[in-house]
Amino acid sequence: MKVGGHWKYLFRAVDKHGRLIDFMLMDRRNTRAAHRFLRKALTTMRHWPPSSITTDQLGSYPKAISRLQREGKLSSNPKHRTCKYLNNIIEADHGALKRVIRPTRGFQTMKTAAATMKGFEVMRMIRRGHCLTCKPHVKDEVRFVNKLFDIFVIAV
Fold first, then answer.
1. What is the rounded CA–CA span in Å between residue 147 and residue 135?
2. C or N: which end of the chain has fewer Cβ atoms within 10 Å?
3. DSSP labels for 119-142?
4. pLDDT tens by residue, 118-144
C-alpha cells in the first residue's frame, strides 16, 4: 500500500481458520522487519505455539525464524513452509482487504495508516465472528471496540 506516496508493506499473520493473529505496517520488507513482526505475532500467540509457519518465498523469513529459534522465542519444532499455494488463505484475505483500502486513496502518514488498518481489521474480525471475547450483541461489540482502542467512556 502507499503511504505518503511511498510503498509500505503490510505484514499479516492468520491462523489456519483465517482468523487474524496480528498485523504490522513496515517501511521495509527485510530480515529485521520480518523478525520484528514474527516476534510480535509469537508474543500474541504465546500460549499457542505454532506447529508450522507458512510464508511466501521471501528470503528474509528463514533468517528471521532461525534468529527467533536462537533467541528461544520459537521452538525448533515448527516447520517453515514456502510452497506457492499453501499461503492461499492469507492471499485471499489480502484481496478482500485491498478492496476496503482502495476507496481511501492512500494514506498520508504511517500513524493514520496504522490506525485505519487497525480499525479495518477489527471491524472485519467482528463481521466474520472471529472475536472470541465479544458476544454477538451491539452493546458487547461496542464494549469490545472501546477496550481494543483504549477508549474510556465517561458517563455524564
1. 14
2. C
3. HHHHHHHHHHT--TTS-SSHHHHH
4. 888 777 777 776 665 555 566 666 766
Q: Whole-model pTM above 0.70?
A: yes
Closest CA relative to residue 38, chosen from 62, 17, 65? 65
Task: State the Cα–Cα distance between residues 46 and 73, nearest whole angstrom.
Answer: 9
Q: Domain locations in the chain?
A: 2-108
For domain 2-108, give the CATH number.
3.30.420.10
Report the alpha-carbon distance of residue 123 to residue 96 in Å, rounded: 13
The Cα angle at residue 101 between residues 141 and 140, in degrees rounded to 5: 0
pLDDT in tens, 28-51: 999 999 999 999 999 888 888 888
Tell me the C-alpha distance between 65 and 34, whole Å.
9
Q: Is the pLDDT of residue 25 over 50?
A: yes
